[in-house]
Amino acid sequence: MQLSFVTALGGGLIRDLLIKDIPPNSIRDWRYGTVAFAGGAATFFLYGVPPSVVIVLDAAGLSLFAVAGAAKALAFDTHPFVAILMGCITGAGGGTVRDVLLAQVPVVLRADVYATAALAGAAVMVIGSRYLKIPRAWAMALGVVFCFALRLISVWKHWNLPRLEVH
After folding, report:
1. Which of 113, 118, 134 is nearest to 68 (CA)?
2. Of 15, 110, 153, 167, which is least surrounded by CB within 10 A?
3. How far apart are CA 122 and CA 61, in angstroms?
4. From CA 14, how far away is CA 19, in angstroms rounded?
5. At what angle do helices 80-101 and 51-75 cross, to 10 degrees?
6. Residues 6+ apart with CB under 8 A from 14
7. Are 127 and 140 in contact (CB under 8 A)?
8. Dihedrals φ, ψ of 136, to 5°?
9. Dihedral angle of Cα 44, 55, 118, 6, to the nearest 10 degrees
């Protein structure tokens, strides 16, 4: 259950500390932890679900968290570039902390289009809302769709980012 909490809320917790929203929402509001624990319990009982379902649900969560994280950072008057980075941290940070706790190389450090999709979705939202003056809700929806599509297409097409080979 600790891993479900860290995975679901770790990225937002890190973002909130960085933008000085203290104490973080995940600590202030009991509903965050409850939802994370319910997700952990559901994962336990749904063990054996086809990997394709997990990939789609993970891509959806990544997309929503990345865009919402960037939007929250903008609401705290961060620079648009920093808001994009905060979106990436919100989307991918919890899984990174989980991987470290499990003594595994984090997913974002492997050759995979994961954090890049989060950055791209957050960037679409920030650019759309701040510079193209698209209504915030529409810009957020575009960011979510872009991140989700990029993540799923990259898995489907086996796209990977270049890797540094250390010998």
Report:
1. 118
2. 167
3. 13
4. 9
5. 140
6. 89, 90, 93, 97
7. no
8. -55, -45
9. 10
123: tokens are 């960037």
The total number of residues written for the chain in this structure: 167
User: Minimal CA–CA distance to 118: which of 59, 32, 53?
Assistant: 59
Is residue 93 over pLDDT 90?
yes
3-state secondary structure the chain: CHHHHHHHHHHHHHHHHHCCCCCCHHHHCHHHHHHHHHHHHHHHHCCCCCHHHHHHHHHHHHHHHHHHHHHHHHHCCCCHHHHHHHHHHHHHHHHHHHHHHCCCCCHHHCCCCCHHHHHHHHHHHHHHHHHCCCCHHHHHHHHHHHHHHHHHHHHHCCCCCCCCCCC
Residue 133, Cβ density class (10 Å: 0-12 exposed, 13-18 middle, ≥19 buried): exposed
What pLDDT is stored for residue 111 in this prediction?
Answer: 64
